[in-house]
Task: inverse folding
């Protein structure tokens, strides 16, 4: 099933049912389907052809969902843009994908100005404030276009979006995601998490992080999505309480903030029946406290951009295995391999390899990266894991020092290169360390140039200007020299 078929089915079966809630507005499935078709027809009128790329730079809004799905209905390939990334990263994505159209929230006009040479004005659709001509206004485009479905044949094997993740060289990698990938990952989540069409899903992750998880699960079942950009605990609790949210996915730090809300706050979270925790380790004490407070336990899961979502999941009934990432979700096959590719028995640490119809087949126009991670019809994750005799998986480390910060892959080399570009820095090394709430975070060890003084605040401001927030070192340490081997290599294990 394609996501286009999901939309058409829901508009036919549940025309009056609420599809999306955002702020004070609610959009029915019929209305949403009409808006999606209008945008699809507008894109086709602008010259979009099947397989052409569309850049999407927006916060989490109904318009962003319409843009994503309208591109899919028109046969295009959307690539959501991380507005926290540097301009260099965004320019690299544009050069790689050569977008036909850019759909941008008016709040990001400053970035658009920097991308003028890569995206002419006449190919820009602007959401929100009246754009400067010749950019095309979102409201104007939707007002004049037909709501009839365009005559574009969409197949399950068609690429629907490129989900970009950081690469080991510092360049982002675009995982090629098909309708089929989304369908099988959605079906896996529905079965393992026992989702229904009556569920109301709170969606708080940005558009550029697993974008289809904003809509695929509820749209497959005819459920309802509640969008929120706020990660403040009172705001999240208010959304759950007001709309009777039944399902949510968040990080451990957000669940910890909810637990810490004073009882006097008056929010009722007992509509929740499923609280997924993805992207990092979730402490057993937090799982216990959340259940005691709200009557529902947190379910740790694991997934990645390349698996199109969750591929390991703990059972939703009973207590989870402390520290476990879970067992393979339906339709995913997971194994642990050694250095020579041999499958390892329980208890031995090796690389986790994932296979299944939800796994992406390649990175877009990046054959070297694809050859490393996408081979043998499998995704070689770079994660070091072990299993127990019952088949539960446990994280043991990462190949090449890569870390995940709030669910985002971060490579030490990229941070080191930024630090070394500072005029007062002689040497720098980055390792991962543990934070109680966030899990893995970067730690920077810095040697200043002779005769120069440098402080933590100066380093933080410098990094914040050159990289996304999740990559900025959380711990900064200054030393007179870095530990090295006789051959001159840095001894990272001593940092």
Result:
């Amino acid at each position: 099933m394609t996501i286009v078929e999901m939309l058409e089915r829901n508009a036919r079966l549940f025309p009056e049912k609420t599809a999306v809630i955002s702020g004070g507005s609610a959009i029915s499935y019929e209305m949403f389907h009409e808006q999606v078709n209008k945008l699809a027809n507008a894109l086709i009128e602008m010259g979009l052809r099947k397989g052409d790329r569309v850049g999407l730079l927006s916060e989490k809004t109904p318009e962003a969902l319409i843009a994503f799905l309208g591109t899919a209905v028109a046969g295009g390939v959307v690539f959501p843009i991380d507005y926290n990334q540097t301009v260099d990263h965004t320019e690299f994505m544009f050069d790689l994908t050569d977008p036909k159209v850019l759909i941008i929230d008016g709040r990001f006009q400053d970035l658009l100005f920097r991308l003028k040479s890569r995206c002419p004005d006449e190919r820009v659709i602007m959401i929100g404030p009246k754009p400067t001509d010749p950019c095309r206004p979102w409201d104007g485009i939707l007002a004049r276009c037909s709501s009839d479905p365009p005559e574009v044949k969409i197949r399950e094997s068609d690429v629907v979006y490129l989900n970009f993740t950081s690469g080991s060289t510092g360049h982002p990698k675009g995982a090629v995601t098909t309708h089929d990938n989304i369908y099988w990952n959605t079906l896996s989540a529905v079965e393992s998490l026992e989702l229904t069409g009556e569920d109301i899903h709170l969606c708080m992750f940005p558009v550029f992080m697993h974008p289809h998880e904003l809509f695929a699960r509820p749209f497959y079942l005819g459920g309802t999505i509640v969008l929120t950009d706020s990660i403040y605990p009172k705001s999240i609790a208010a959304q759950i309480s007001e709309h009777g949210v039944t399902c949510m996915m968040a990080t451990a730090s957000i669940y910890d903030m909810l637990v810490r809300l004073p009882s006097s706050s008056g929010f009722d979270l007992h509509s929740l029946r499923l609280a997924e925790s993805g992207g990092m380790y979730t402490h057993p004490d937090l799982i216990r406290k959340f259940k005691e407070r709200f009557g529902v336990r947190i379910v740790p899961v694991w997934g990645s951009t390349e698996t199109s979502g969750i591929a390991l999941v703990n059972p939703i009934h009973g207590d989870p295995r402390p520290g476990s990432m879970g067992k393979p979700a339906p339709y995913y096959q997971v194994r642990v391999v050694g250095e020579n590719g041999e499958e390892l028995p329980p208890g031995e640490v090796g690389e986790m390899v994932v296979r299944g119809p939800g796994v992406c087949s390649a990175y877009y126009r990046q054959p070297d990266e694809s050859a490393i991670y996408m081979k043998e019809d499998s995704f070689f994750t770079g994660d070091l894991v072990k299993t127990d005799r019952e088949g539960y998986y446990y994280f043991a480390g990462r190949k090449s020092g890569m870390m995940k910060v709030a669910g985002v892959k971060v490579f030490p080399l990229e941070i080191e290169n930024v630090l070394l570009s500072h005029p007062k820095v002689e040497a720098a090394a980055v390792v991962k360390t543990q934070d109680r709430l966030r899990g893995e975070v970067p730690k920077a060890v810095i040697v200043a140039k002779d005769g120069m003084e440098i402080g933590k605040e100066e380093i933080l401001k410098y990094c914040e200007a050159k990289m996304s927030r999740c990559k900025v070192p959380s711990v900064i340490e200054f030393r007179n020299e870095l530990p090295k081997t006789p051959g001159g290599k840095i001894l990272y294990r001593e940092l």
